[in-house]
Specification:
38% helix; single chain; 11 strands; binds glutamine; alpha/beta; 11-stranded mixed sheet
Length: 483
């Protein structure tokens, strides 16, 4: 039963082949048995899951239907869940039980999903390896000595190991697409404003976006359908109708114009990954797509711009964790300053502290113009590059990551080496565009992902291309040994 995709589960439940409670119990047992190897969950919500599964079975018995009714999922541990620990991977929020549900959580609960737990993540979503979590690193099920990618590494490892069919995740600079690539999953970062950020603990608010992680594009379509839509509680959420993502999955790719940015295939890309990306292009050409080289000339400035803007926003967002209102508080402070200093010094990990300092510096008087303002100008140039490219092509294709999943610990002494892993993913966040990563093969037993980018609100097009690709390839069906 654990091999079933969300779409297969929906059919099985509708045909009464099994109940949601049976399925939920099977997956909970699997999590208990296998997760100690992976560390992909921070909290397993067994009682909640059983009660939601029973409620879903009762709704179905009363005649209700719906593709997510009774479907087991998990939430990245930065989506607030009422009465349940919402830690954001940090000691700062280790004892924090959210007083309300995030919009994504309540929308999915209304659709009938069953929450199996909260997944591990890089502290405050800062990272590309899932090594900065207060709860320890997450292991990649394809090779337990390697990272699963980050920051949504817990969601990715759990889905890749078939502990559950799909999970929510968030992407500020690649945290859905990069772990999807490194664990052989399909992951979609929606257009900025497509999914409500209300109740999602903020890292960099102008970049953060929630989305689905699953094994197939078909499943991402189902989960995104439950997550997307206008929410008056998030002022950046856009009031655009949500299309039926499943309805366009099978559209023909005849004449689809694919752009390959020449900057994506230069130095720094593992040639074995480049070969697999080219193979995916061939497969899409066979389906009728036409390929064209394009240029995104400002891409080289994306990492420096992102690593000014994201820490700047983080330093502002994380100022609310002061030891007074919620979260960790140090023992026996001598005065207020001591309370602030020690609560933050003891509650935040090293990477979070580094980013707060970089961000506060970039925003400070005298440096604001030199760093923050310049970075914002680069952001606009990057967006303009994409707008020009999308006049010529329908989707942009390239590698999701420059390298394979590295060994746990290998980049611990070199934060910049880890930042460089985001080179292909962060531009979509800076421009606010939707992006998807899909499995495209293996090198030395480690997964490789291909990234697709599309114009604003064209999530349906991304899912369509990935779905057609998945009908002629089987990378997404392979399971890691031992899981
Ligand atoms: N690796 C990037 C960072 O550390 C992106 C993380 C994310 O998307 N949450 O900021």
């Amino acid at each position: 039963m654990h091999q079933l995709t969300l779409a297969e589960i929906a059919r099985g439940l509708a045909d009464k082949k099994f109940s949601s409670e049976e399925l939920t119990r099977t997956l909970l047992a699997r999590i208990n048995q296998l997760d100690p190897q992976l560390n992909s969950f921070i909290s397993v919500t067994e009682e909640l899951a059983i009660s939601q599964a029973r409620a879903a079975d009762a709704r179905r018995a009363a005649g209700e239907n719906g593709p997510l009714l009774g479907a087991p999922i998990a939430h990245k541990d930065l989506f607030c869940t009422q009465g349940i620990r919402t830690s954001c991977g940090s000691k700062m929020l280790d004892n924090f039980k959210a007083p309300y549900d995030a919009t994504v959580v309540s929308k999915l609960a209304e659709a009938g999903t069953v929450t199996l737990g909260k997944t591990n993540m890089d502290e405050f979503a800062m990272g590309s390896a899932n090594e900065s979590s207060h709860y320890g690193p997450v292991k990649n099920p394809w090779n337990l000595e390697h990272v699963p990618g980050g920051s949504s590494g817990g969601s990715a490892a759990a889905v890749a190991a078939r502990l559950l069919p799909a999970a929510t995740a968030t992407d500020t600079g690649g945290s859905i697409r990069q772990p999807a690539a490194l664990t052989s999953l399909t992951g979609l970062k929606p257009t900025y404003g497509r999914v409500s950020r209300w109740g999602m603990i903020a890292y960099a608010s102008s970049l953060d976006q929630g989305g689905p992680l699953a094994r197939t594009a078909e499943d991402c379509a189902l989960l995104l359908q439950g997550m997307a839509g206008f929410d008056a509680k998030d002022s950046t959420c856009i009031d655009e109708p949500v299309p039926d993502y499943s309805a366009s999955l099978n559209n023909s790719l005849q004449g689809l114009r694919i752009g390959l940015p020449k900057e994506y295939f230069g130095a720094g890309l593992d040639p074995r990954i480049a070969d697999l990306v080219q193979a995916s292009v061939k497969a899409l050409e066979k389906l009728g797509a036409v390929v064209k080289e394009i240029s995104l000339p400002n891409m080289q400035h994306a990492i420096p711009a992102y690593y000014v803007i994201a820490p700047a926003e983080a330093s502002s967002n994380l100022s609310r964790f002061d030891g007074v209102r919620f979260g960790y508080r140090c023992e026996n402070p001598v005065d207020l300053t001591d309370l602030y200093k020690r609560s933050r010094g003891e509650g935040f990990g090293i990477e979070v502290q580094r980013r707060i300092m970089v961000g506060a510096y970039a925003l400070s008087a005298g440096y604001y113009d030199a760093y923050y303002l310049q970075a914002q100008k680069i952001r606009r140039l990057i967006k303009n590059d994409f707008m020009a490219a999308f006049n010529e092509v329908d989707v942009i294709l390239g590698p999701t990551t420059p390298n394979l999943a590295w060994k746990i610990g290998a980049k611990n002494n070199d934060p910049v080496a880890e930042y460089l892993e985001d080179v292909y993913t962060i531009t979509a966040n800076l421009a606010g565009l939707p992006g998807l990563s899909m499995p495209a093969g293996f090198v030395d037993g480690l997964p490789v992902g291909v990234q697709l980018l599309a114009p604003y609100f064209q999530e349906g097009r991304l899912l369509n291309v990935a779905h057609r690709y998945q009908q002629v390839t089987d990378w997404h069906t392979r399971a890691p040994t031992g899981f």
